[in-house]
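Fill-in record for Carbohydrate ABC transporter permease.
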Amino acid sequence: MNGLETRRRSTKAILGVMLAVILVLYGFPFVYLLLTSFKTPSEAIAVPPSVMPNVWTLENYVAALAKEGVVPALINSVVTAVLSTLFSLVLAVPAAYAVTRYRTPSGRVFVLAALVTRMVPTIAIGAPLVETMRAMGIGDTSFALAIAHTTISLPLSIWLMASFFEAVPDEIEEAAKMDGASRLGALWRVVLPVVSGGLAVTAIFAFLASWNEFLFALLLTSVRAQTTPIVIANFQTQFGLDWGAMTALAAVYSLPVILLTLVLQRHIVAGLTLGAVKG
């Protein structure tokens, strides 16, 4: 028993060390970005670079937020990501529900086709989307960009929601129908509350797909609807990239996603474990 207990402790210790190493490697880039945002502009571009700031300052944050176009870009990013998330959920929920409840061969083909479209390179549909949006008269708008971002998030949203709906027993809906609810009423009043965690997970993925997207934002916007990733990429000085202001704005841009994840954390955990309690 002592030998077995020793091996267990050794295994736990090794796994703990590996987890710590992975956590450091994964988190160091963001920590370094955050520390750089508090450096003076000259120290931010110093060679060789230092990890910790010699002088802590908010100068980069003041300069970044005061730069022309930054605040409108932040607003555009929020509007675009929220619209894209809503579009994805409104389209994905009925599509995934129909596939999982009717269980037709065409439905399974549809889910597979949705995943295949997710594999198409973004650049391949970028140019046609630009021309389409211009022809519709909605070029350089958050609405057009949100539609483009929906093409990225929708296939994954359908696949995720289908997996969550599969975890809901049919008996729950049958009981609701026996009480007089229609299929749509059972979906709205019974099934969706059960898969609220799955909705949160899907919403997070759809929001992130739009929040972090760069290529469509570059192709479909010019002035009015530019999002923050485009503005960050355009931070230039006569000496090159303005690393201090770039890291400061990147840190600010990361806050909404972090806060959203923390707020929805309970629902996300519930959604990820939904399939484990089926039946």
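KEY FINDING: Residues 118 and 155 are 6 Å apart (CA to CA).
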